[in-house]
Every structure is written in structure tokens, then in C-alpha cells.
């Protein structure tokens, strides 16, 4: 039987081998403080029409309900900051420039779990990539990887916030990292002041129902509310404003993941190209892109809204 220390070292070595930039580990336990905060956020309706946020409340706040017998929550970060410059046409959030990160990261996570099953012996566990009721940012903070900024993003002191978060919940005892205790946002208000729709509230609360990403991705209505006209700063899919202005992102480094290489059309398409794009071409070009989440109809709605 390997020691807890050796098991922990194996987990962190595998994380690095499979291309994850950071790995932190926390003890699996119920998140009582987050439960109160999430309940208050939902009660205020700050999730807008994202009804799925109301589902599986107990699972979100207790990893042992997701994985029976869970003992450890392993948090993995993967950098997506691009090498390239911004697109020539409408604004598209950097996370969506390449292949769908769910697919890319799940492949790495699946292979990592398979190798750990050999190295550690058979264990119970599940891996998640933004597709299950897991409070990833809280677990990242509890794992010592960074703090949750005023813009709601996890910020690492050494590399900024352009990271995807993956979570592996296992029934294995490991050595737990100390939580990241300090908030290095300090008195900085840049993200609050720069948010085009005032979605970032002063008390470190995000009004999800006012976020540009909500309107351009999550909202499935046929039309975007007219009161938002002129407030999107040319963002067609998502928004990076609060990250772009964050001083900590001056430390961001280009990623090394082949799967995040930008789709050429993302960088090259002009407004006219987007307007003239057929649904058939959209499906072919963006088949493996996060843009497919909004579908052709949603992208065209967003473009028309920006022009109106």
C-alpha cells in the first residue's frame, strides 16, 4: 500500500504530465458557507433564466453526494490564454477560439484517471469539466490555487485568470493543500468600473442576468432585451472585459494546448463574413467549437443585435 504522501505526489505528477498547469487538493466536505451564499444569490434572481442553476442544490454544496465516500477534491487548471491577437470582426471570448474545452480537457482527464487507477489501485471517483453541479472556483481556492476576484473569476497570483477548471472527486485520502487565504484584489475596482453592463456588484457578487455572456450565450430567447442596446461593446459571444482589465492578467502566458489553437475563421472573419455565413457553413466550421452552443440562430441573433 502506497503512502498518502506518495499517492499525492503521483496525482500531482500525473496532472503535470497530462498538461494541467496547476493541481491542488482539498478535503471533500460540505460547503456550508457557499450553500448560504448560493441560496441568497438564487433567491435574488441573479441567475436570470438559467434555471439549471436551481437544480441539484445539495450536489453542488456536498461532493460526497456526487461521489459516495468521497475524501478528496482534486482541482486542475488549464491555461487557455492565446498567442494570437483579437479577432478582426465581432468580439468572441478567448475561451471559445479553439476546440470545445469540454472535449479537450475530458480527454486529458480520462487518460489521467486511467493511469491513476493503475498507479494507486482501483478507486472510486469522477471527473468533471464545467458540466456538473460542482463549485469549481471554491474548491480551487480551498486547494490553494488562487482567490476568487471581484469579477467572480479564480485568479492565480502567478498567471492571472485565463484558466479552465477541471475537478476530480475521489474516495482516496491525500495530503491536502492549505487554502489560499489572501484576497489580492485589494482596493482595485477596474473590473467593476469596466463592466459594460454593470453586472459586477461592489460586494463581490455577480448579477448573472446582466452579464454579456449571459445574453449572448445562455439566453435562448429570440430577442435580446432592447434596454441592452449599445452596451455590448461589440461582444458577439461571451465577454472578456473584466479579465482584460485585471492587473493580474499582465502575467498571463500563451497556452501550449494544441486543441486551443484558434479556428482561423474566429480570427479572420469580418462582420460581413459573419452576416453572410450560411447555416451549413456554420455547422461545418464550428462543429467542434464552443460557438455551436449558441447554434447558428443564436449567433445571427447576436450579430443583428449589435448592428441594430
Automatic annotation (TrEMBL):
Checking Pfam families in the record gives:
Fer4_16, QueG_DUF1730
| Comment on bound cofactor | Binds 2 [4Fe-4S] clusters per monomer.
What Enzyme Commission number does this protein have? 1.17.99.6
Q: In which pathway does it act?
A: tRNA modification; tRNA-queuosine biosynthesis
- The residues that the entry says bind cob(II)alamin are 60, 130, 151, 154, 165, 213, 239-240
Protein family membership: Belongs to the QueG family.
What is the protein name for this chain? Epoxyqueuosine reductase
Organism listed in the record: Flavisolibacter tropicus
UniProt lists the gene as queG
Amino acid at each position: 500500500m502506497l503512502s498518502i504522501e506518495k499517492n499525492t505526489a503521483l496525482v500531482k505528477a500525473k496532472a503535470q504530465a497530462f498538461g494541467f498547469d496547476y493541481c491542488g487538493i482539498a478535503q471533500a466536505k460540505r460547503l456550508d458557507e457557499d450553500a448560504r451564499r448560493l441560496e441568497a444569490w438564487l433567491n435574488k434572481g441573479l441567475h436570470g433564466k438559467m434555471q439549471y442553476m436551481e437544480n441539484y442544490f445539495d450536489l453542488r454544496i456536498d461532493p460526497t453526494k456526487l461521489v459516495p465516500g468521497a475524501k478528496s477534491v482534486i482541482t486542475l487548471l488549464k491555461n487557455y490564454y492565446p498567442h494570437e491577437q483579437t479577432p478582426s470582426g465581432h468580439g468572441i471570448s478567448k475561451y471559445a477560439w479553439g476546440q470545445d474545452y469540454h472535449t479537450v480537457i475530458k480527454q486529458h482527464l480520462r487518460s489521467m484517471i486511467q493511469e491513476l487507477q493503475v498507479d494507486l489501485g482501483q478507486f472510486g471517483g469522477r471527473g468533471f469539466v464545467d458540466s456538473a453541479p460542482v463549485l469549481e472556483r471554491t474548491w480551487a481556492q480551498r486547494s490553494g490555487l488562487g482567490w476568487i476576484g471581484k469579477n467572480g473569476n479564480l485568479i492565480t497570483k502567478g498567471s492571472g485568470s485565463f484558466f479552465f477548471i477541471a475537478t476530480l472527486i475521489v474516495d482516496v485520502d491525500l495530503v491536502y493543500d492549505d487554502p489560499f487565504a489572501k484576497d489580492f484584489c485589494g482596493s482595485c475596482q477596474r473590473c467593476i468600473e469596466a463592466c459594460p453592463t454593470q453586472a459586477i456588484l461592489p460586494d463581490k457578487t455577480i448579477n448573472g442576468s446582466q452579464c454579456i455572456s449571459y445574453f449572448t450565450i445562455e439566453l435562448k430567447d429570440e430577442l435580446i432585451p432592447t434596454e441592452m442596446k449599445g452596451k455590448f461593446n461589440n461582444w458577439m459571444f461571451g465577454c472578456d472585459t473584466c479579465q482584460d482589465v485585471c492587473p493580474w492578467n499582465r502575467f498571463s502566458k500563451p497556452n501550449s494546448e494544441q486543441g486551443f489553437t484558434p479556428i482561423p475563421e474566429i480570427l479572420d472573419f469580418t462582420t460581413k463574413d459573419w452576416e453572410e455565413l450560411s447555416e451549413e457553413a456554420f455547422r461545418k466550421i464550428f462543429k467542434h467549437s464552443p460557438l455551436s452552443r449558441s447554434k447558428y440562430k443564436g449567433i445571427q441573433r447576436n450579430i443583428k443585435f449589435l448592428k441594430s
